[in-house]
Design a protein that fits this description.
The chain contains 2 helices and 29 strands. The protein is mainly beta and 360 residues long. It folds into 3 domains: 28-128, Immunoglobulin-like (Sandwich); 134-244, Immunoglobulins (Immunoglobulin-like, Sandwich), CATH 2.60.40.10; 258-359, Immunoglobulin-like (Sandwich).
């Protein structure tokens, strides 16, 4: 009886092994698992698509269960119905080049019920940036000329520098006659040369900072008048420049650290003619004296604002910047951005704010 049972179990095991060995399965074989779109894909030329073709070289139908892309810039599509032995199927990969002017390499992971169950496909290429149109390159249009922007933006300039790196605004003569651009109300610390352009010619308006005797720490904002062939335009160019002190970059040198305990004060519906005041408290959390070199209200030249502050604060000590606003002759929403220039090497420019509404 025992021998009979062993024989039956052996036959079952052999039958299972024989069935497993001879089990039918689909087998996916791609013609080529990678595709290079080339090195000249136009950024604005629309999406590009490649079809990966495969053949089922197995002996049972095969189904692609899912395809996932490694990036949201790539969209897959694929044969949804079972592919019979000997028949062909596909996986499409669509890449969106808009806004992606650089080389790329993306993967698509294919999952199926065949052999192998997981396959990786690859697309690659280089997207090239297309030339800007005149309207894109020069979006500001003023009376026959077009500008790339309306402001000179200088990086922070060390006050001892004799001359800064120029700030430039690109310009295009969109008219049919030659033009000469000239400038007035230019602050004494800026140099701007006239610009002559032939019809449909491109050029550059270049502004250079030059040291002056009256140079002061902080931010200056100037409105520069622009003339085309002697005709003043109603618009102006803006020049913003921030002068900062020379600070030590030696890591081993003791330095001050400025930490404000409060840096924003808001008042609401203050009656015109009232006085508004606030104290902005701070601490020198460093290991060297904190020197306050200047405190200015950016882009405000009135006499309604009075600011007092200590010139120096010892390590570990606290200080106060006091601001008093006389609301006489002021009305409506007010927003004062107050700039503090210090000898803190890592961040020489700090800000506090005074905001509120003044009613009659």
């Amino acid at each position: 009886m025992k021998n009979l049972l062993k024989s039956v179990l052996l036959l079952v095991a052999l039958s299972f092994a024989f069935t497993t060995i001879n089990a039918q399965t689909g087998k996916i074989v791609f013609d080529n698992p990678s595709h290079d779109f080339g090195s000249n894909i136009p950024e604005k030329g629309g999406n590009v698509t490649h079809r990966f073709t495969f053949t089922n070289k197995g002996d049972a139908p095969v189904t692609i269960q899912n395809v996932t892309a490694s990036c949201g810039c790539t969209t897959p599509a694929w044969t949804k119905e079972p592919v019979a032995p000997g028949a062909q199927g596909f996986v499409d990969a669509t890449y969106r080049p808009a806004g992606r002017a650089y080389p790329f390499k993306k993967n698509l992971n294919v999952t199926s019920n065949g052999d192998p169950k997981f396959i990786s496909l690859t697309i690659s290429g280089v997207v090239v940036k297309e030339p800007l149109t005149v309207e894109e390159e020069f979006p500001v249009s003023w009376d026959g000329i077009r500008l790339s922007e309306k402001a000179f933006a200088f990086s922070r300039v060390i006050i001892t520098e004799k001359e800064s790196k120029p700030s430039e605004i690109k310009v295009y003569n969109s008219s049919d006659i030659p033009v000469e651009l000239s400038f007035k109300n230019v602050p004494d610390y800026l140099k701007i040369q006239p610009v002559k352009l032939q019809p449909k010619e491109k050029g550059v308006i270049k502004a250079t900072y030059g040291q002056t005797k009256n140079a002061k720490y902080g931010t200056s904002i100037s409105e520069i008048e622009i003339f085309v062939n002697g005709k003043k335009l109603p618009e102006t160019l803006t020049a913003t420049i921030t002068l900062i002190p020379v600070t030590s970059g030696d890591e081993n040198t003791a330095k001050p650290v400025l930490n404000f305990l409060n840096n924003n004060y808001m008042f609401n519906n203050i009656k015109q003619g009232s006085m508004v005041s606030n104290e902005y408290r701070f601490k020198n959390a460093g290991q060297a004296d904190l020197n306050i070199l200047a405190v200015n209200a950016i882009n405000y030249s009135g006499d309604n604002l009075k600011i007092t502050y200590p010139k120096a604060v010892k390590p570990g000590e606290e200080g106060v910047i006091k601001v008093v606003l006389n609301t006489k002759k002021l009305k409506g929403q007010q927003d004062f951005n107050i700039e503090i220039i210090t000898n803190v090497s890592s961040s020489p420019v700090s800000h506090v704010a005074l905001r509120g509404n003044i009613v009659e």
